[in-house]
Automatic annotation (TrEMBL):
UniProt cross-references to SMART domains, sorted A to Z: OMPdecase (SM00934)
Record bears the keyword Lyase: yes
Gene behind the chain: pyrF
Record-given protein name: Orotidine 5'-phosphate decarboxylase
Known EC number: 4.1.1.23
């Protein structure tokens, strides 16, 4: 999916919502534990209930890898289900990979080719040769960690070196890498006050924004400082939507939560 196609889907659905799929067997509705593949059944129900309200889904691979081979099979079934039934949905493998040379090439192949995700999240700490193998995939996107929503982000990302915050240097340097037009960036919703400066560096790039809902980020603040002329935002919500209920009505309640976010986004887009 190209960024233009993604933008078209945002306008069509009046939504820039991305639903995070973080399946935890200790949190999903108990009745699903009796099925052959509880993780896939949970994901499928959430997708079926929200696909018209969301433009993207972001499975966090840790929540699948934790269950070994069975979890990986569930991940494959989940991405196949989305690709086969909802090809206009943007898919993100939230894997946060990052290594050099052949290792990154194999990570990229695993997620962008074999599993056929539209994008994958990466950590840039090891520099360009850990990211460029992902960028080599045509019509695929590499979503690089820039300024994250967690408390520990201040340990390194906002440190000033040579008179400038490290995250700004990371953003500026990444623009010089080969195929950097395939880059998107992760910026946490809890860092809304930083969006204006980030937009000065990457005015046209899509930003994946986790942290609204359970983490306390403000959608209106994110949009105020982070939205560009083509929207340029994918705002992720996971726990607030997928764990809205542990009963047999969990999918219905997930839809209600997703609809509330979508309606807020629709109003923001209308005012924009």
């Amino acid at each position: 999916m190209t960024t233009q196609q993604l933008h078209e889907q945002i306008l069509l659905k009046k939504s820039f919502l991305c639903v995070g799929l973080d399946p935890d067997l200790t949190k999903i509705p108990p009745h699903l534990l009796e099925t052959e593949d509880p993780i896939f059944e949970f994901n499928k129900a959430i997708i079926d209930a929200t696909h018209d309200l969301a433009v993207g889904y972001k499975p966090n691979t840790a929540f699948f890898e934790a269950y070994g081979i069975k979890g990986w099979v569930s991940l494959q079934k989940t991405i196949n289900y989305i690709n086969e039934n909802f090809p206009d949905i943007f898919t993100i493998a939230d894997a946060k990979r990052g290594d050099i040379g052949n290792t990154s090439s194999m990570y990229a192949k695993a997620f962008l080719e074999d599993l056929n995700f539209d994008s994958v999240t990466v950590a840039p700490y090891m520099g360009k040769d850990s990211v460029e193998p992902f960028l080599a995939f045509e019509n695929k996107h590499t979503i690089m960690l820039a300024l994250t929503s967690n408390e520990g982000a201040f340990d390194f990302q906002t440190l000033i070196t040579n008179g400038k915050e490290l995250y700004k240097q990371v953003l500026e340097t990444s623009k010089t890498w080969k195929n950097s037009h395939n880059l998107m960036y992760v910026v946490g919703a809890t860092k809304a006050e930083y969006f204006a400066d980030i937009r000065k560096i990457v005015p046209d790039s899509f930003l994946l924004v986790p942290g609204i809902g359970a983490q306390g980020g403000s959608l209106s603040e994110v949009c105020k400082y982070g939205m560009n002329d083509k929207v340029g935002l994918l705002v992720n919500s996971a726990r607030a939507i997928i764990y809205a209920s542990k009963g047999t009505d969990f999918a219905e309640k997930a839809r209600e939560e997703a609809l509330a976010v979508q309606k807020e986004m629709e109003e923001i887009l209308a005012n924009k």
